[in-house]
Structures are given as C-alpha cells and as structure tokens.
Amino acid sequence: MSRLVVVGAGGHGKVCADVATLIGNWDEVVFVDQKYPEIKSCGRWPVVASSLESLGDCEFSFFVAIGDNHVRAKVYAECTELGCSPVTLIHPNAVIASDTQIGAGTVVCAGVAINIGVKVGDCCIVNTGSTIDHDCLLGKAVHISPGAHLAGEVTVGDYSWIGTGAATKQVLRIGSDVMIGVGAAVVSDCIEPGIYAGVPAKRLSRRDPF
Ligand SMILES: CC(C)(COP(=O)(O)OP(=O)(O)OC[C@H]1O[C@@H](n2cnc3c(N)ncnc32)[C@H](O)[C@@H]1OP(=O)(O)O)[C@@H](O)C(=O)NCCC(=O)NCCS
C-alpha cells in the first residue's frame, strides 16, 4: 500500500493533504506532527506519529507542509537524510506551461498559473491563485503567497516570501531572505535581506524578517 506522510498538521498541511488526495497517487495520506498524541487528526486525515523517525521505516513518500521557509527547508533536509522520498504536489487545477521545472518538495496550489521557462526550486510554496510569468527563477524554500503575481523574468532568492496580493514589475531581482508585504507593488530590485512593503515597495529597516 502506498502512503504519503505530510509533515506539519496545520492549516497549510491540510491544504497540501487535500492536493495530494486530489492527485490520487497514494492509497493513504497521513500526518506526523510534534503535537502528536495531543492532536490525532488534521481535517479528515489522521495524525499518526510525532515525527518521520518514529514511523520506523522509510517505506513511504513525504511532503513537508510547514509555512516558515527556514524551518521547512531544515525539516525537508532532515527527512531526506533519513532516506525517505520527497514528492512534488501540483493541484489538478493549476496551469503549468511547457519547459518549466518544479522542484522536489514543492507544492503548487489551486488556480496557480506558471508560464513557460519558469524554474521553481525545491521545497517552495506556490500558493493559491498566484501567477509566475515566463522565465522567472525561484530559489529554494521560497513562498509565493495567495494572489501574488510575478511578471516575466523575475528572480527570487532562497527563503524569500512574497506576501499576499503583492505584484512585481518584470525583469527585476528579489534577493534571499526578503519579505515582500501584503499588497506591495515591487517596481525595483529588492536585494538586501529585509522587509519591503507599500506602493511602490520600500525597505522597512525596523527589523529582520525572519
Ligand atoms: C509587511 C509585514 C511583514 C510587516 O509586519 P510587521 O513588521 O509585524 O509590521 P506591523 O504589522 O507592526 O506594522 C508596522 C507598520 O507597517 C505598516 N504595514 C504593515 N504591513 C504593511 C504592508 N503590507 N503594506 C504597507 N504598510 C504595511 C503598518 O500599517 C504599520 O504602520 P504604522 O507604523 O504607521 O502604524 C506584514 O504586514 C505583511 O505584509 N506580512 C505578509 C503576510 C502574508 O502575506 N501572509 C500570507 C500567508 S499565506
């Protein structure tokens, strides 16, 4: 029997379990979460253990559904070191053009459009209704939030997070560890790590984003 184990029984985990169930490649979708045995279910899926290690073998595929980009990447690396196989989850109602690459451990949610020539790294979240236009390059553990839009040829560095409904001009660079705020209009490069917000987006130097 084929089993997919989703790591992280929160709201995002529920979304990922639903995508996996719609894809239909696995006989069983279950969660592991540190909060087990206090929590025993997440949505309609069971939480069966506190970690992948405690399942005792690696006869299953896994997906890490943790929102924090750095934590997700760390847990993903740990699970891979155990010898378990990561999967990529693409919602059946996402539109993915030809000549694209979507990394291992990445989820592409409902209503997403990814255009030709795009590369999305490992362990990313491409969230509901976002769009990534032609030739964009996304590093690892990036999160494109619901309804965010990247115009063509935009690069996004590792661990960066594009907030809900933010939009970018074409051909610009967003560095690593950059947080773009909800609704921002990004019209120039955002290279230094930090929080950028507003219309047009400006760096808010008050605090580290992560
Ligand atoms: C930008 C952001 C990270 C700032 O968070 P924060 O550092 O906790 O900031 P605060 O909420 O304390 O707000 C500080 C100031 O920035 C302003 N501000 C916050 N977010 C802003 C945004 N997106 N655009 C413009 N101004 C914003 C606040 O109004 C406040 O202004 P004031 O000092 O004049 O009162 C956060 O508001 C944000 O946009 N997060 C993205 C969330 C998201 O997309 N989630 C998706 C989940 S899937």
Model description:
Helices cover 12% and strands 31% of the residues. The mean pLDDT is 96. An eight-stranded mixed β-sheet has the order 7-10-13-16-19-22-24-25, with helices on one face. By secondary structure, it is of the alpha/beta class. The chain folds into two domains: 3-87, Rossmann fold, CATH 3.40.50.20; 90-197, 3 Solenoid (UDP N-Acetylglucosamine Acyltransferase, domain 1). The chain has helices at residues 11-23, 69-81, and strands at 3-7, 28-32, 41-42, 45-49, 61-64, 85-86, 89-90, 95-96, 101-102, 107-108, 113-114, 119-120, 125-126, 131-132, 137-138, 143-144, 149-150, 155-156, 161-162, 167-168, 173-174, 178-180, 185-186, 194-197, 202-204. It starts with a strand and ends in a 6-residue tail after the last strand. The longest helix has 13 residues, at 11-23. It binds coenzyme A.
List the helices and strands and how they pair.
Elements: E1 3-7, H1 11-23, E2 28-32, E3 41-42, E4 45-49, E5 61-64, H2 69-81, E6 85-86, E7 89-90, E8 95-96, E9 101-102, E10 107-108, E11 113-114, E12 119-120, E13 125-126, E14 131-132, E15 137-138, E16 143-144, E17 149-150, E18 155-156, E19 161-162, E20 167-168, E21 173-174, E22 178-180, E23 185-186, E24 194-197, E25 202-204
Parallel strand pairs: 1-2, 1-5, 2-4, 5-6, 7-10, 8-11, 9-12, 10-13, 11-14, 12-15, 13-16, 14-17, 15-18, 16-19, 18-21, 19-22, 20-23, 22-24
Antiparallel strand pairs: 3-4, 24-25
The structure holds coenzyme A (COA).
